[in-house]
Design brief:
Blueprint: E1 12-17, E2 20-28, E3 34-40, E4 49-55, H1 58-61, H2 70-84, E5 86-91, H3 94-97, H4 100-111, H5 116-122, H6 133-141, E6 146-150, H7 154-162, E7 166-170, H8 181-191
Parallel strand pairs: 4-5, 4-6, 6-7
Antiparallel strand pairs: 1-2, 2-3, 3-5
Helix pairs in contact: 4-5
Length: about 200
Amino acid sequence: MKTPILPLPEPVATVPTRYGDLVFHAFTDASGQDHVAVISGEVRGCSDVLCRIHSECLTSEVLGSLKCDCRDQLDLALQRIAEEGGIVLYLRQEGRGIGLANKLRAYALQNEGADTVDANRLLGLEDDLRSYDFAAHVLNELGVQSVRLMTNNPAKISGLRAEGIAVNHEPHQAEADGQAQSYLDAKRDRMGHLLAL
C-alpha cells in the first residue's frame, strides 16, 4: 500500500529583527506567489488584533527610493506589533498590483509631471489593482477574529470587510522624507486616503 503524500505545512520561523524576535509565517497563494505574515504575540482566537496589510515596495524598502513612504510605513508597523503584539501581512503586490516593470514605467511618467494616479492611467492601468481576498484567507487561517487595521486606505478596510473580516480602523502615518510629499498628496486628494498632511 502506498503512503499518501501529505501537503507540507506552511513554513514558520522565529527571526531576530531590529524590533526583536518575530515569527515569520509564509503562505502561498493559488498562483504560487509567496507572502509572509509577521507575527508578534498570540493572535489565534484573538479579537481586535493590531494588523497591517502591507504591499511589497522593492524600490523603497530594499533600494532606498524616496518617492513614497512605504518603507517608513512598514517600519512603523513592525515596531508597533513588536511593542503591542499583532500581525504585519506582507503581500507581494508591487506597485499597487501593477508589478515592478510597470511601476518603473509609471515612475518615468511621474518624472515628466504626472502624479501617481495619472501615470497608471497613461499606461492603461487601473489606479489600484490590489485585492484583499488572500489577506482575509490568511487572517482566517491564523484564527484572527477581528482586526484593528493600521491603514489610511479606505479600500483596504472595505476590501477586508467584503471578505467577512471585522475591521476597526487604526490610523497609520509615518514620518516620510519630503520628496514623497507629492505622492502622499495624490493618495489623499485623488484616492481618498485618510492622511493628515
